[in-house]
Write a structure and sequence with these properties.
Keywords: Membrane, Transmembrane, Transmembrane helix. By secondary structure, the protein is α+β, with helices and mostly antiparallel strands. The chain has three helices and two strands. The protein has helices at about 10-20, 20-40, 45-50, and strands spanning about 70-75, 80-85. The chain has a two-stranded antiparallel sheet. The model has no long low-confidence stretch (mean pLDDT about 80).
């Protein structure tokens, strides 16, 4: 009858956990990647606004401020804006 190989519990536990090191490393790396991407989501918008390149937030103009009416179109920088159509008679 063949003799069974006997391994201690400590050696088995060490070998079993060491095989999971790479999986644990990949999991932590993925979590770090998700955190960094979430933190960097608005950085490009922040840089544009700090440089003065972001379009301003629009609010509806008052109708009585322009007797000819307002036109909604792009300005020279490519941002959407309201322009007053003055009626000259």
């Amino acid at each position: 009858m063949a003799r069974r190989k006997h391994t201690s519990a400590a050696l088995f536990r060490k070998n079993d956990l060491s095989s999971w090191n790479f999986v644990i490393f990949l999991t932590l790396a993925f979590i770090l990647l998700v955190v960094v991407v979430a933190a960097m989501k608005n950085v490009s918008l922040d840089l544009r606004s700090k440089a003065g390149l972001a379009c301003p937030q629009l609010s509806l103009p008052r109708a009585e401020d322009c007797p000819g009416g307002w036109t909604y179109k792009r300005d020279t920088q490519g941002c959407l804006a309201f322009f007053c159509d003055n009626i000259t008679e």
